Amino acid sequence: MEQILVQARAARPYLVDIRRQLHRHPELGLREERTAALIERELDEAGIPHRRFGATGVLGVLQGTGGGRGTVALRADIDALPIQERGAAEYRSEVEGVMHACGHDGHTACLLGAARLLAARRETFGGEVRFLFQPAEEIGKGAADFIDGGALDGADRVFGLHSAPDLPVGTVGITPGLNNASVDLFRIRILGKAAHVSTPHLGADALYAASQLVVAIQGLVTRRTSPVEPVILGVGKFTSGTTYNAVAGEAELEGTTRTVSHEARSQVRRWIDETAAHIAAVSGTEAQVFWTDITPALINDPQASAEAADMVRRLGGDVRVITDRPFSLSGDNFAEYLRRLPGCYAYLGTADPALPDTQNALHNDRFDLSEDALPIGAALYAACALGWLNKA
After folding, report:
1. pTM of the predicted structure, to 2 decimals
2. Domains contained in the chain, number
3. CATH code, domain with 205
4. Phi, psi of 179 (to 5 degrees)
5. For residue range 164-173, what is the model confidence (pLDDT) as tens digits?
6. H helices then E strands: how many in the chain?
7. For residue 31, what are the β-bridge partners?
8. pLDDT reported for residue 262
9. Are 111 and 74 in contact (CB under 8 A)?
10. Are residues 374 and 332 in the same domain?
11. Residues spanned by the domain of 209
């Protein structure tokens, strides 16, 4: 596998060019038309057949011509975020209000690099490699199109990676078991009755009820959840009222829950539903709660994780693996694949010590990554596929 890393590092200019093209032209979830076209062009040049999944997802399929069998799926997310980039890099986003602030441009470049590496040595393995370029991860979509469309059917393993600005370049985090929390989005509408501020008894104050609900939701964590099981309930958006001298007739909250077990996920939903109903009842308003499933908890298969960690070690050079990276209360719907297939999600060290801390922070408007990590990511994708196919 050491030769894979050597070849990937030789391809660094290609990887950097692809990543910077994507960074300059970021696209939001389910709108990644330009990105999908670039991916299709690169797969064509590598001689890899492909087809669309949904509007902007792309699946490439590479058949090995050597001995062996088996099927491995490799996934990269391709969407950007609605953030105005404020960094000074010459390749900064050219799209107003949109940027790659989570490293998906790097993930896509790494998987395209792996596709080229594997296509060049297809005679060394049998079986099949499927390249899943998934849209809309940031909004909890995209994975279902691939799953429902059969992209995992008959596959033995699934592998993915994510940039990790908390790890130095050359380090790969592969932790068996829990890695990321489940994520849900809630929206609560409080319907009251508008009235003049001088006659509040003639109305039902939706703003007041919603304010009480914000406080009550925050209190659920400290008083109704176990202090040894992480739970986050956060309200990130609050809108209400039309003018300064009127009782608000309507209010709306949006927030998120983060939990690490199925039981806690269901329980937290019930608590929020009940709390909203009770506060509405005592304030004379009506509460409507709407839930959106974003992703379940991301749990790496122990055996697949051990296999991936072994591949990191076999890459040689200055690349090392750690297997005790702490889990995060962020989420990633790569978890949907892991619910259906043994697999592993790795964290690729991308920290650049030359960058300020703000640029080594995901979802930051100055986020950047060390491009020295790109060859390692490409080699890791390729090695994990070859490791399984030559074993199966």
Report:
1. 0.94
2. 2
3. 3.30.70.360
4. -120, -35
5. 999 999 999 9
6. 10, 16
7. none
8. 87
9. yes
10. yes
11. 182-295
